[in-house]
Amino acid sequence: MSCSRSTIFPSKSLVAFILLVSSIINAFPFCLGMEEMQLARIPGTKRAKALYNNHLRKRDGSIITMREGDYYITTIYTNDESVEYDVIVDTGSALTWVGADPKNPYVRGPSGWATNQKLQVVYGRGRFEGWGYIDSITLETQEGSNPLTVNAQFIGQATFVSYFPSLLDGILGLARKEASSMRDRQGNPIPTVFESLYNEGTIKHAAFGVYLIPVNDRGVGEITFGYYNEAAITSGVNYVPITNIPAARNHWSVDASVMYDGRTILNPTAAIVDTACSLIAMQADAVSVYQTATGAAMDSEGWLTISLDQYDNLQTLSIIIGGQSYDLSPNAQIWPRKATYVGPIKLVVAGMSETRWGLGIGHPFIQRYYVVYNATSSQIGFASTRYTGSTTN
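Request: output the structure for the sequence above.
Response:
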């Protein structure tokens, strides 16, 4: 669930979409290291629907979400859709769980039942503990579109949570099922939500596409379950296999290297492509080389910062995947600024403490390139979008 975390744990017809809307707060973003944040519970999906309707074409099976703080969230329901939960969308962890907010506890639906499995997940400094259930869950869909419901999904009920964003309810885990240590009675990995949608015949393929838009370009985006949104891309999709590096091959990870201004600063390594990561996180040696090359200073909160003059001299940061160079322009390397912002410019590159990967590919990349996660073929695909060269940060 982060770039810096340890995680334990019929006919197909619909193509479904989760929509994502971004906002920003001034907190140092960790790749879901479960840093505490103060967020206000707001009617997020209603705001997301309004932005979506004004910005993207309406599609069948649309699921509405938005970004709060450093995380993209969506709404899911239990108990015959009578209880709703705002959950973080996370391709880095496999377990879906709710109940982090004690004012909004998990309510089991009429078809739900307890598995009597005790759960524990560690995310950086944070921790989730709880119990397992099998229950029906529904993802928030756009008005007038077909619902997306999993009739029998493994879900966690939180009994203890630490260092989790306040007033959020849990996590929608979209990692590969192999990333989880949880097993059913036959010893098989427990399917994640998108795999359950496929197994129950709701979507065509055990795959989904992620389309995030830079924060200052309204921040609207979508997740497409069952396929990918061809209208969102401006190039073909380049697929690469999941990495063979043993420690990372059960996750959404690829082999990648990094260059800055045409110079290699990170040799080929396992890279996790993570929707719960708000940074480009790299091994410490690579960050040091990047800092020297950019002339950045590190502030008291751990950000790399540059002046406006240094920004004017910033060069391209390239992530090399499958022989293809995915370039991040100078604007893509900085934290989004408000129109009235004055002061040092924050860079989105940071160090990575997680040892399974040498690189964490988070929002700064995914907001510029469309990503397809394909569990059936064990591949990840990448394509450019109209926002690949956006300069709105």
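The chain has a mean pLDDT of 83.
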